[in-house]
């Protein structure tokens, strides 16, 4: 990169090293799931701005099987993964790491989602947050009701506006 080229923002990595592994094991620990379901659930965590590839998920599931953390059951031509007692023990042993991975995933999802907002919307949100913080907790009842109604109206507008 030359001195005259603008610096490009690198997009944040959606997951830290080993986080997908921990998230998948945790999801299987909650309930038996198909690989596709796992991909969709991780995607939901990221409000669909990041979806792990099958090429990253299925090798991890195969590794889980090799380590006997999960057992796959054929169901309609697809595998449904169930956690085993060994997998439950592994999950319990790594619960702190799983909790940390979930926190990192939530934070990353917020950062990625915010980065994908139009700049004018991002700036308006920043201004709103700044203005609200300047109140320092000094709110009058009528102001609370009026501002709440405006925020509810904006939320409904955003929610009901179809993406282009």
TrEMBL record:
Domain Transcription regulator PadR N-terminal: 24-92
InterPro entries xref list: Tscrpt_reg_PadR_N, WH-like_DNA-bd_sf, WH_DNA-bd_sf
Pfam families per the UniProt record, alphabetical: PadR
Name of the protein: PadR family transcriptional regulator
Species for this entry: Stenotrophomonas capsici
């Amino acid at each position: 990169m030359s001195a005259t080229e603008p610096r490009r923002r690198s997009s944040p990595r959606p997951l830290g090293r080993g986080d997908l592994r921990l998230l998948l094991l945790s999801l299987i620990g909650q309930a038996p799931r198909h690989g596709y379901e796992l991909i969709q659930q991780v995607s939901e965590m990221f409000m669909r701005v990041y979806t792990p590839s099958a090429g990253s998920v299925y090798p991890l599931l195969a590794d889980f099987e090799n380590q006997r953390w999960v057992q796959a059951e054929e169901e309609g031509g697809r595998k449904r993964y169930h956690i085993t007692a060994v997998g439950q023990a592994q999950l319990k042993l790594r619960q702190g790491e799983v909790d940390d991975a979930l926190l990192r995933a939530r934070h990353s999802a917020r950062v990625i989602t915010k980065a994908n907002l139009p700049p004018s919307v991002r700036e308006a949100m920043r201004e709103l947050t700044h203005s609200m913080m300047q109140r320092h907790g000094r709110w009058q009842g009528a102001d609370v009701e009026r501002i709440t109604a405006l925020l509810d109206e904006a939320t409904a507008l955003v929610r009901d506006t179809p993406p282009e």
